[in-house]
Design a protein that fits this description.
The chain is an alpha+beta fold and 113 residues long. It contains 4 helices and 7 strands. The longest helix is centred in the C-terminal third of the chain and has 11 residues, at 72-82.
């Protein structure tokens, strides 16, 4: 699991953090989309995985795109950029094209609400 974070003085760190699993699924902060507890319950009800991290819940982007069809284009654009990251030998994320895609993608996540 790769954690990708960006620094944004206007957002809390959890709001600009996403995760990329080994299967290519991106996990986004549920609290950006609505009530975090309610979304965690919905994830459980739907049998979807959820990633708890530092007191917050991260939801699969594929599920979020289905549940929030109006936001699906923005979610899918962020996912496209996040998936370009691969861990380096020290475990830090590195984009294939060398651009700061994580910053852009996590800023997209931060502006979804």
């Amino acid at each position: 699991m790769l954690q990708i974070s960006a620094t944004d003085p206007k957002a809390k760190p959890w709001q600009t953090t996403v995760f990329l699993d080994d299967d290519g699924e991106v996990y986004m902060p549920a609290g950006v989309f609505g009530d975090e507890l309610q979304l965690a319950l919905c994830l459980s009800y739907d049998g979807q995985p959820q990633l708890p991290h530092e007191g917050h819940v991260y939801a699969p982007a594929s599920w979020l795109a289905r549940e929030y069809p109006r936001l699906a284009p923005k979610i899918n654009e962020a996912v496209k950029h996040i998936r370009q990251y691969k861990p380096t030998s020290d475990g830090t994320p590195q984009a294939d094209d060398g651009h700061a895609l994580a910053t852009m993608a996590t800023e997209m996540v931060g502006t979804i609400h």
